[in-house]
Amino acid sequence: MKSERLLEISKLVKENAIVADIGTDHGYIPVYLIENKVAKKVIGSDVSKGSLNKIISYVKSRKLEEFIDTRLGNGLEVIKPFEIDTVIIAGMGGILITEILEKDRNITNSINNFILQPMVGAKELREYLLDNGFTIITTKLLKEDGRYYEIINAKIGKEKKWTDINLELPQNLIEEKHPLLIEYINHKIDFSKNVLDGIRDKDGEKVKERVEELNKEIEAYEEVLRQVESK
């Protein structure tokens, strides 16, 4: 598989899993999982008929129709309870992922392994998971084509609340001193400072609150950066 992001997502699938790839687009993950004998069956779904036709063509070209089922539909509505043990939801916003998980909660609760890759809103996704009966197993961090990606691996199960800074920078990345972590923290600091510069001269109570929030955010990032750099 050419994409490191898709490869890292696939690595979180357990052997002999039955998987649903929600919003599968071209179907690269389903084909990879079957051809590499990771999963025994994969459902690839998409809300777009045009996108689904891409995976149908790709699956036929690889002669994998027996192992990959293609379905048109929105979110988890294409899945029956206990039909799969692993779900992949990648390439969407974190808020949209939370809505997908919440909308069909009876199906969500029947799944063992959640592999979630938000394009934005990773913090909000983690907040949702921790507040709604999920345990976050680990977070993977990678950079592809100049963009940072977080891949969240979770399961059903209660977990204590995380600190605000860990919602932004998961503790496992700090503990393992991930090779991209210092670069990633600096990226977050720069982003927050740019937002701050854009609103600093504006008036209003909400702007004032946002400025205070951003300053605290930057201080928290810088504190973690000092900790990581001193190790």
User: Could you say how many structural domains there are in total?
Assistant: 2
- The strands making up the biggest β-sheet line up spatially as 3-2-1-4-5-7-6
Number of alpha- plus pi-helical segments: 10
Please state roughly what percent of the residues sit in beta strands, choosing from under 5%, 5-15%, 15-25%, 25-35%, 35-45% or over 45%: 15-25%
What kind of assembly state do the chains in view correspond to? single chain
In total, the number of strands is 7
The helix fraction, in percent, is 40-55%
Give the topology string: H per helix, E per strand: HEHEHEEHHEHEEHHHH
Globular, elongated, flat, extended or rod-shaped: what is the shape? elongated
CATH class of the largest domain: Alpha Beta
Terminal CA distance reads: 35 Å
For this structure, what is the CATH homologous superfamily of the largest domain?
A: Vaccinia Virus protein VP39
Cα radius of gyration in angstroms: 19 Å
Largest sheet composition: 7 strands, mixed
**Topology-level CATH name of the largest domain:** Rossmann fold
Q: Catalogue the unreliable spans.
A: none
CATH architecture type of the largest domain? 3-Layer(aba) Sandwich
- SSE-based structural type: alpha/beta
Tell me about this structure:
With 231 residues, this protein is of the alpha/beta class. The chain has 2 domains: 4-162, Vaccinia Virus protein VP39 (Rossmann fold), CATH 3.40.50.150; 181-230. The protein is built from 10 helices and 7 strands. It has a 7-stranded mixed β-sheet with strand order 3-2-1-4-5-7-6, sandwiched between helices. Strand 1 (17-22), helix 2 and strand 2 (39-46) form a beta-alpha-beta unit. Helix 1 (4-11) packs across helix 2 (28-35), helix 4 runs parallel beside helix 6 and helix 9 (181-199) runs antiparallel to helix 10. It is elongated. It starts with a helix and ends with a helix. The mean pLDDT is 95.
